[in-house]
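A note from the maintainers: we've had questions about how concatenated examples are separated. There is no special marker in the raw files; a new sequence line simply starts the next protein. For clarity in this README we add a label.
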Amino acid sequence: MPKKLKRKVLSEEKKGSILALLAEGYSERRVASILKISKTAVHKNKVKQQTLGTTKLQTGRGRKRLSTDRNDRQLIRMSLNNRRMTSSDLQKEWQKAAGVKCTARTVRNRLLGAGLKSCNARKKPFINEKQRRARLRFARDHKDWTVEDWSKVIFSDESNFQLCPTPGRLMVRRRPGEAYKPQCLAPTVKFGGGSVMIWGCFSKAGIGQICLCEGRMNQTTYKVVLEENLLPSALTMFPNSEDWFFQQDNAPCHTIRSIKVWMEDHQIKTLSWPAQSPDLNPIENLWNVIKRKIDGHKPSNKSELREFLHQEWHKVTQHQCERLVESMPRRMKAVIQNQDNSTKY
């Protein structure tokens, strides 16, 4: 498409010359030739002088704004009260409430002007009030733990890897810095389906062993996982010390009495981990890295998926492990600062 040329505005001096030459009896064509401008420009200025009594540009002749400042504030409140409303829905509600007749594009422009941009909702687990208090209590209890203290922790978790991850996104409208507000999140549910379950652990010393599990994890299979994978991993990570802690989440198979007895029998100290807190467990970051790598491999069957899982897990470096453990004091601080809401981790 050819570039649209910008209209040239005549100077007041040239407009005066047009009127002077016309007054002397020159034709519009002759005036245009003398002043080297178009005949249309001469004619328009002549008509303007005759009808308005001036050739100056008229201000305030553009289209008036469809909404007032008060209307705009009302729209912003509507969006903040329901951050998942589309611009089309907001446009209808705004017209109903304030009588503003406009398009969805106008709604988006008003909200963008207020710093409210439509973004993908970050996915975080739903946290109820009891769980919020537990998260805050845990963060306060461990706010003075140093990196050296966290270096004595073996972090663990299960994760589900799918052959065909299902894409999906939820758009919300938010300002900068509001990504982790509860109203801007898309709550997730654990294990929404998949093909291969993996258990793994790591510490600042590096990765431990992994176990690819078939079917659902129960107390029997979890005890086998701990005996065959946690104990050898702990021996590798802390060969000359028993001064370490084991971290696990609150899955039913982790907290059942038989597992607690097993922990006591093996003199394993566990951290009292708050529920619905994957953002506090740095192994989740490792899972995310590995999932991106697996997506790049595009496995076509379970056998390939298992093979790629083993490959990518053993590519995790000690430097990566160190950096994740070093983030633990910042995670505790983030929970306290956010007053137990979800963090960026």
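[label: protein 2]
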Amino acid sequence: MAELFEGQRGRLTAVAHRMLGSRADAEDAVQEAWLRFARQDEASIDNLGGWLTTVVSRICIDTLRTRSAKPESPLDDRLDWIVAEDNDNAPERNAVLADSVGAALQIVLDTLTPDERLAFVLHDTFAVPFAEIGDIIGRSTDATKMLASRARRKVRGAQRPTDLRRQREVVDAFLAAAREGDFDGLMRVLDPDLIWRVHTPRGVIERHGSQELARHAERGQNARFTGRRVLVDGRPGMIAWRTNGVPIAVMRCTVVGGRITEVESITDPSRIAAMDLPARSA
């Protein structure tokens, strides 16, 4: 029985990982599937692969529905940031960007409803027929097709190409203004309705408006912090270091209409220490 299950483990883990966005959560889901399989009469299962996929999918959708009922912070332990050199000549850039695309897709998947996500992932990634998916979520085949179609539109819409070069210019302008202590220059590149989330060891602090971030960046120059632009999950971001070379913050930026509209910052030393960061000097 264990040997039969182990033959399916890789595929089941891949399904659960794509559904849940977390290796640890995926392994938990697969372990729960194993426990259910161990209690099942093996002779009652006609199609082992299909049966196990259904079990894992139902475990995953229960997990997603629980998450939906209890929203998590925008940044949690399910997604690790991929930080890379933002330099066209960096040899690892293309590989890391490919990983970043995967991370970015996971972020988009998190915006789907549990049923949309299941229909999209199982059909488009693992070629599970719509009729079987419908049985899992209790919907008709046609309704399941509509869920997958809606999910597909959301994913494609979120993945439309953006002008990365222009976004880089905005982040560079922010860094230049910060280096010069130019408060007005900082305000020019920050959206007035900016959202700034800071993930500290004590939890998440959310601030609204551009002035506080501008003042913070201005003070950072006076305190002799240094910063440089990097790619974070395929988007322009920044790392700030103390003069002794210790990184103190990793930031991921959202740029819309030539201004920074959202900044997600990690200042928790333990999370920063766990990241594979580029060198202080490019």
